Amino acid sequence: MNAARSLGLRAGLLSALLLLVLLAVWHVATLSSAPVAAAAPALTPEQIEYAKLMGKDPAATGAPTAKSGFPTLAQMGSTIAKHLSQPFYDNGPNDKGIALQLGYSLARVGLGYLLAALVAIPLGFVIGMSPLVYRALDPFIQVLKPISPLAWMPLALYTIKDSSISGIFVIFICSVWPMLINTAFGVASVRREWLNVARTLEVTPLRRAFEVILPAAAPTILTGMRISMGIAWLVIVAAEMLVGGTGIGYFVWNEWNNLSLPNVLFAILTIGVVGMLLDLMFAKLQKAVTYVD
């Protein structure tokens, strides 16, 4: 116990050290070019007027910036504070707070993921329990599984004619395969001895499925659900970049079009943190259903 705690402490210290080194490299890389930009002359009234006509902020245009255009740590800190101070503001279709954009993305992922679970887990049970169904469906699974989820997007947009629902459909497609395959594998791997004991005790098929097979296959099913959630969170960003409208993926693309690298970096960090929290949640669930054999 003490050894595990010591290992965790040392790993935490090493992570903190690596973070400090990364921030120091970032600071040096962006600061080295700042004095050159700081010597830039102030804008003339004509240049200020031209910047306004081009939709740019004259103050930001004339302010000292890094030569590379990459934001400094101070700029990133200011951007993070600005977004976190007003996460729920809504100034129209293209200007929403980061919490609202995340909410749209999580809602799409949640709905598509739930639909996939409703299809994949029962079907995986049937495939795992029946060799006949497994052999019949295996060719379809092997053909459909390698197809990139985004390849379905044009077909979804053509048939569904709604960008938001098409995004949910893409999440459904990318989430269904890991859950289906892991459920079928987990059910098929349940020990024959346990099934024979249940059969000897004349346990009904429904009770056998819920009281013998499901607890035994739960760790493998949760592994598939965890993989599916990771893929779904990866795909939603790309899907929202394509369909536009709302969501964290659209936020990244919109800020790139505005050439706002601090906002793009902030969105990337947010995507990573949310993805980590989702993975931690499924890791906790997986640990809760794992048993010692």
Contiguous runs where pLDDT drops below 50 for at least 5 residues: 35-40, 62-66
The number of helical segments is: 13
Tell me the β content. Answer: under 5%
Q: How many strands, which pairing sense, and closed or not: the largest β-sheet?
A: none
Shape: flat
What string gives the helices and strands in order?
HHHHHHHHHHHHH
Helix content: over 70%
Q: SS-based structural class?
A: mainly alpha
| Rg | 26 Å
Please report the distance between the alpha carbons of the first and last residues. Answer: 22 Å
Number of strands: 0
Mean pLDDT: 85
Helices and strands, with pairings:
Blueprint: H1 2-31, H2 34-38, H3 45-53, H4 58-62, H5 73-85, H6 98-129, H7 131-144, H8 153-160, H9 163-188, H10 192-200, H11 205-243, H12 248-257, H13 261-289
Main location: membrane
Membrane topology: Multi-pass membrane protein
Subcellular location: Cell inner membrane; Cell membrane
